Amino acid sequence: MVLPPPEFVRIESLIMEGSTKSLAEKRAAIQHIQRASEEATVDKQGRMLLPDRLAQAFDLTGEIILVGNKERFEIWNKAKWNECEQANASIFEEVAEEIGL
What are the tens digits of pLDDT across the range 59-90? Predict the structure, then answer.
């Protein structure tokens, strides 16, 4: 998941304000997010270079796909995205039917 800095701050605020966990647990959750995060920059052509550890951890080799989601986007291995889409197709169909799409 790729987040702009304001969204990252918003998520931290949600954890601190909205969770029923203790202060220590909230801090631990934020620290976990921070440890798993990487700051990214783009080159002059607008390309983002992903750290090797993230590319390897999420099998971002071969074809990848960017999936937009309002304030953020996700980077997926294309084959894994297709598997996820197939597995969740019935959920989408149920939700679409419920809201009249």
Answer: 998 899 999 988 889 999 999 999 999 998 89
Q: Assign residue 62 a region: left if phi > 0, alpha if psi is -120 to 50, beta otherwise?
A: left
| Of 50, 17, 43, 22, residue with least CA distance to 9 | 17
Strand partners, 72: 69
H helices of 19-72, in order, are: 23-36, 52-57
Q: Give phi and psi for 64, each to the nearest 5.
A: -125, 165
* 29 Cβ contact list (under 8 Å, min separation 6): 15, 19, 21
Q: Where are the domains of the chain?
A: 1-37, 49-101
Question: What's the pLDDT score for residue 1?
Answer: 86
- Is residue 19 pLDDT above 80, yes or no? no
End-to-end CA distance of the chain: 27
**What is the sign, positive or negative, of the torsion defined by CA atoms of 74, 77, 80, 86?**
positive
